[in-house]
Amino acid sequence: MSQFTHNKYPTFAFAPELPNRQWPNRVMSKAPVWASVDLRDGNQALIDPMTIKQKLRFFELLVDCGFKEIEIGFPSASQIEFDFTRLLIEEGHIPDDVTIQVLVQAREHLIERTFEALKGVRRAIVHVYNSTSKVQREKVFAKSQEEITEIAINGAQMVKDHAAKHPDSEWVFQYSPESFSQTEPEYAVAVVDTVCEVWRPQDGQQVIINLPATVESSMPNIFADQVEYFCTHLGCREHVVVSVHTHNDRGCAVAASELAVLAGADRVEGTLLGNGERTGNMDIMVMAMNLYSTGIDPELDFAKMNEIVHVVSECNNLPVHPRHPYIGELVFTAFSGSHQDAIKKSLDRGEAVQWEVAYLPIDPLDIGRSYQDVVRINSQSGKGGVAYILARDHGLNLPRWLQVDFAQKVQKESERTQKELSSQDIIALFEAQYLPDGDLQLADYSIRRQAKQDSMNAVLTQEGRRIEIGGSGSGVLSSFIDGLQKETGLEISVTNYAEHAMTQSTDSQAVAYVQLIINGALYTGIAYSSDTVTAMLRATLVGVSLALEDQAKAA
Ligand code: KIV
Ligand code: ZN
Question: For residues 78-93, b (16+ Cβ closer than 10 Å) or e, as one string?
């Protein structure tokens, strides 16, 4: 029997009373301080945790992206984490403007080991935590609020005492009331107030207070209320850096961090691409790119995004979803006809000072993607997309009447194959449709231009047979058609015509597009040549050959 019953779940009970909330009236105008926890929170959540070599590679990537605060591990938790900390310090991998951070539980022997790992560090953030949430207090530890506060106070004191033994290093203390978002708001403030009494940030000790949504369990606006409540009730608020650390259980980790910044947070912890426990940590790349795409300096550099994605997914041994914001294989791709049309029109309008392209929140080129990704063709696509590909990859600027005609053929082909059509598939289909090797071939021609009317003679071949035609008219094309009508007995008129050079180079090829009505039916012919007149005559012969074939079939 199904167990699917919402009554099983209590309503969220940790929202503060905040009738005067200020955060909804604020806008974000600068990037927060970013702190990567890839090498700890992310690494702990991997099926196969990273090797030291991978951790170093990832660390260097984070430095290259511009992170200034990097949690490198939990040195007291395993030898590998300890050794990695030593390696960074002893081999001098930490740039002067980067501060490493290490995590430790509020327990004596672990804190001692942590400081051992940090010996000789120039500057480090020691991040101590204990769980404060109701569920952890009652179900996991069976401890009262007072007892949990005691753990926090002792942890803070131990960190302070050990740091005092290493005065040559610069110490920043960080405390997390783990599961802050599932902690009663008044109690969370009370615990942190007691930690601050130990650390005394008002006397100059650098302190970060980190507020985790260890398990995301409410809407992001509620988390923002919790953060604003915390910031406006904490005794030493102006002396501490307030940080947030959101997880993605409800899919809103980035939103929660964004709103938390409006609510007063100065700093955001997270991982690149959102790896971390369960559904992951908040994705710093996404939040930073959200700022970037609205004209705010993210203070991180993601220009080499392909390389970043490669290293992150290799170290984490996790694939990237094709729709992952900003970086997924399909996120800049439009299959739908109307989207393709809008993108093509926006791009065709030329370079504006600021980016304004329908359906593309950022310019894919900024992060090393190409416009190749933007338009892809399947049965949902329309004339704009097909025309875009022919122009971009094959130098063919189809006139609108031909775009409409060809798009229908593309759609039919894609429906038939039930597949996406590549650029090569599209040009092959185009040439098969409009540039077939027709019966009639142009061997030679001469034109006589006169004041009132032109005339021309042409030599055609048909299955090795030589045919001479001659005609006159108001221009070259009408003279040629006059000659063809006399030779074939067909009734031919031109409905549409276009031509253009295909490249800017001196040996540029020309292409001509002709649409004819022949004995009442519509025929399209296209031809390439080294000059536009020859291309035009050949394109006309394609159409006439098709009509002759139809006539032969009907006979
Ligand atoms: O999610 C969490 O609560 C953590 C803390 C240890 C900061 O990772
Ligand atoms: Zn976490």
Answer: eebbbebbbbbbeeeb
Q: Tell which atom from ligand 1 comes closest to the C-alpha of 103.
A: 6
User: In the beta sheet, which residues pair with residue 501?
Assistant: 510
User: Which residue type occupies 548?
Assistant: L
Q: What percent of the chain has pLDDT over 70?
A: 99
Query: Ligand 2 centre from 211 Cα, in Å?
Result: 10
3-state SS, residue 73: strand
Query: Which letter does DSSP use for residue 360 in this model?
Result: -
Give me the CATH topology for the region 440-554.
Answer: Double Stranded RNA Binding Domain (3.30.160)
Task: Identify which of 103, 104, 140, 173 to mutate to test ligand 1's pocket (most ligand atoms within 8 A of the CB).
Answer: 103
- Nearest residue to 196 via CA among 170, 225, 157: 157
pLDDT tens digits, residue range 262-291? 999 999 999 999 999 999 999 999 999 999
Determine the topology of domain 32-316 in CATH. TIM Barrel (3.20.20)
| Residues within 6 Å of ligand 1 by CB | 41, 103, 129, 176, 178, 210, 212, 214, 245, 247
Amino acid at position 302, single letter: F
Looking at residue 279, what DSSP letter applies?
Answer: T
Give the nearest ligand 1 atom to 129 CA: 6
Q: Provide the residue ranges of all domains of the chain, joining segments of one domain with +.
A: 32-316, 337-434, 440-554
Q: Are 106 and 149 in contact (CB under 8 A)?
A: no
**Residue of minimum CA distance from atom 2 in ligand 1:** 214
Question: What CA–CA distances, in Å, run from 275 to 169, 313, 361, 484?
Answer: 31, 10, 24, 70
Looking only at the bridges linking them, the beta strands covering 510-518 and 521-529 are antiparallel
Mean pLDDT, to the nearest integer, of 19-23? 97
Q: Which two tokens stand for residue 505?
A: 């180079």
Stated as kind and residue range, the H or E segment containing 506 is none
Give residue 212 CA to ligand 1 midpoint distance, Å.
Answer: 6
Instruction: Give every CB contact of residue 164 below 8 A, 6+ residues apart in sequence.
Output: none
- In whole angstroms, what is the distance from residue 341 CA to residue 352 CA? 18
The residue whose two tokens read 């900390």 is 85
pTM, whole model, 2 decimals?
Answer: 0.86
pLDDT in tens, 318-347: 999 999 999 999 999 988 888 988 988 888
Give the span between the Cα atoms of 371 and 378, in whole angstroms: 17
Number of neighbours of residue 237 by Cβ within 10 angstroms: 17
Mutate which of 127, 129, 132 for ligand 1? The one with the most ligand atoms within 8 Å of its CB, which is: 129
The atom number, within ligand 1, closest to the CA of 281 reads: 1
pLDDT given for residue 374 in this prediction = 85
Nearest 5°: phi and psi at 141?
Answer: -100, -15
DSSP structural state of residue 138: I
Ligand nearest to the CA of 178: 1
